[in-house]
Q: What sequence folds into this?
């Protein structure tokens, strides 16, 4: 019955590798987000999709590429991983736009060695 | 661009003491949301304030939205160990995406000691 789910929960990988994180929501929301949380707990938006269309693309390296195959899914692919990419990545969703309550997934802790 | 600052960044209290975190935005907000993130967990929505000067209560938690809609506060009365976590305020708006984007505050990490 999980509302927003992410896989994997943990990801440990070497520098230079490519990895993907998957997100799914079963709330019927039409907007989904990716956030990055660093070691100081700062939470920053990376991308947002509304009805499968990209509406927010913050200053994120183009090694990060989101993909939304449908309204319920928003995946994040990262190429050529760097040490600084180590963080917790959260997927979230909301009904409508950002003024509404956001529901977060459990997070994916990415560690780049 | 829009910035949302919170103070303090960290707070240690004894159980039973009160706690307050303050949130200040560089721009006027249409509304403000508060989230709580338990250690190892994910942010969970607590409340949304919309009106200027609005005050809302949830048991021991009191939320306030400033008259100018640029600041907000969360006050916890008689903290308990279950209050441990990071509290974030968040407001819509930003340099890109406008109202489509929630800008999260810098967060206040609360630790409660017995």
A:
């Amino acid at each position: 019955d999980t509302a927003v789910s992410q896989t994997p929960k943990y990801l440990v990988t070497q520098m230079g590798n490519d990895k993907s994180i998957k997100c799914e929501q079963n709330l019927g929301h039409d907007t989904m987000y990716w956030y990055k949380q660093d070691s100081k707990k700062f939470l920053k938006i990376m991308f947002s999709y509304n009805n499968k269309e990209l509406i927010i693309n913050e200053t994120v390296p183009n090694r990060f590429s989101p993909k939304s195959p449908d309204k319920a899914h928003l995946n994040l692919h990262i190429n050529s991983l760097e040490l600084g990419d180590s963080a917790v990545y959260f997927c979230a969703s909301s009904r409508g736009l950002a003024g509404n309550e956001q529901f977060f997934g459990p997070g994916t802790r990415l560690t780049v060695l | 661009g829009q910035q949302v600052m919170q103070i303090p960044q960290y707070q240690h209290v004894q159980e039973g003491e009160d706690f307050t975190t303050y949130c200040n935005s560089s721009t006027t907000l249409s509304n403000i949301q508060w989230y709580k993130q338990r250690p190892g967990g994910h942010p969970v929505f607590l409340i949304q304030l919309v009106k200027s000067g609005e005050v809302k209560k949830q048991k021991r938690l009191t939320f306030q939205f400033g008259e100018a809609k640029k600041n907000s506060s969360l006050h916890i009365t008689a903290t308990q160990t279950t209050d441990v976590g990071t509290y974030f305020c968040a407001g819509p708006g930003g340099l890109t995406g406008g109202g489509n984007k929630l800008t999260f505050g810098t967060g206040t990490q609360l630790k409660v000691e017995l």
User: Anything to note?
Assistant: Residues 57 and 95 of chain B are 32 Å apart (CA to CA). The first strand of chain B starts at residue 4 and ends at 7. The two ends of chain B are 41 Å apart (CA to CA). DSSP finds no helices and eleven strands in chain B.
